[in-house]
Amino acid sequence: MAKEITDTLGPRLPWAGKHVAPEFVEDELSRLWHMSADNMRTSQNLRVRTSVLNLVLCASNKEVAQQASALLRDLSSTHVARVILLILDQEKNAPSEVSTWITIRSFPIISDIMRHNFEQITVRVTGDAVASSSTIIQPLLKPDLPVYLWWVDDLPTNTQLFKQLASMSSRVIVDSSQFSQPEDSLRTLSSLVQSLTSDSALSDLNWGRITPWRELVAQFFDVTEYKPYLAGVDYIEIEHAVTLNSSLPSSGLSTLDSNPACALFLAAWLKTRLGWHVISDHEDNMYDPRSGTYSWHMRRSQDSPKSGALRKTIRQKVSRELTNVPKQEGDADGILSLTPREEIDIPIGSICSIRLISNVGARQAAFVIDLEDSAGHVSTSGELSQGTQSPQRTVSIASIHKASELLHDELEIMGRDYLYEETLHEVFDLLA
Q1: For 240, which of 120, 179, 214, 404 is 20 to 30 Å away at the CA?
Q2: What is the mean pLDDT of residues 329-343?
Q3: How far apart are CA 413 and CA 200, in angstroms?
Q4: Distance between CA atoms of residues 186 and 350, nearest Å
């Protein structure tokens, strides 16, 4: 085995830097730093450089790895000490090999005078060596610095490998928008959270994508006139983007490409904030993951939330503040619905709209947030049955479309995001 896990010439990766044997990585990086110091301008910049973390990027192939490497340019304000780009090539019958490349990357922060510098090591493992990936990269990490693991695309079929790499990380970042089997992968993440130590955390770029939507929902109930309607919400509809896949023209069949992860997170968050519980045996519940259509009939707990519980700080664990409200009559107190909307210019899985209907006595209110265009502009409006209507306003949430900005935010978080973990478990319960 020791002979098998050796460095070979491997594929050419010009963007990854200089090809070196694994045992010479540190020596060659040291030599590159000395060469850089010959440039006076770079030498001055090295003295202001602060390194705070290791960033490990896991990619399933060279193409995904190259895209992730290019994205690092937008992280210039994050003081990364060392990036390890791990390419897990799990092609069948491939020989067991380890190939490494090194480079020092330098990007301007404010101007060309002040630059951000970090080391990048690209490691490609193939064959049986993939199972030993965590052991292979361990010596390459900068000591005494936290390790952030970003799993760039779909979760591996080998969950054991994922868990091994997660166990050596302070924070594990995934992007459920890339999951080919979102439901199964979200279940895997829910079980993973329970096995993490107190020093480890899990987060999802999709959680960052729905943060502006959660804030906009909460802002409705900042308005004094609307506060009483929070406890009366009894219908929620969330639309998410799907595309029509006509890849089988000869058969005349079409399918929908759907990834409801964002919609599921938003639904689970609203469910917990409103104190709802699924009536699991209700005959009108709908479950169609193929199209992304879901509907759950809900029962309120004996308590219903104060508006303050919905408006707690988004990034902190939210403790529920509840007040007694009589349970409504009927077989269900509320309906939570996810419906697909066919879109062309919007990424699959994006939230398209949220609609909340509230009934308090004889009065009704409707609160709507709607995505207006692919540039990330959304409109919000609230209307009461007696004719009172809040002015429609338009806000921009364009930042949620850039993976680099979402990743940057995650690298700024040190502790566990308990609200995310709670919501992830609620997604698991919705899909049970």
Answers
A1: 404
A2: 84
A3: 12
A4: 17
Distances (CA, A) of 373 to 118, 177, 215, 290, 363: 37, 19, 19, 25, 32
State the greatest distance between any 2 C-alpha atoms of the chain, in Å, as a whole number: 79
Residue 297: other Cβ atoms inside 10 A: 22
pLDDT at 308 over 60: no
* Residue 97: closest CA among 127, 62, 57: 127
Q: And the tokens for 133? A: 């990936």
Are 152 and 175 spatial neighbours (Cβ–Cβ below 8 Å)? yes
Tell me the pLDDT tens digit for each residue of 274-296.
999 999 999 999 999 888 899 99
Query: Considering only CA atoms, which of 204, 206, 205 is closest in space to residue 192?
Result: 204
User: Nearest to residue 240, comparing CAs of 130, 339, 154, 357?
Assistant: 339
Q: Domains, the chain, ranges and CATH?
A: 14-169 (no CATH), 208-430 (3.30.360)
Helix or strand (DSSP H, E) at 400: none
Angle at alpha carbon of residue 350, lines to 344 and 355, rounded to 5°: 110
What single string gives the DSSP state of each residue in 254-320?
A: EEEE---HHHHHHHHHHHHHHTEEE-TT-TT-EEETTTTEEEEEEEE-SEEE-HHHHTS-TTSPPPP
Residue 123 has which token pair? Answer: 């490691």
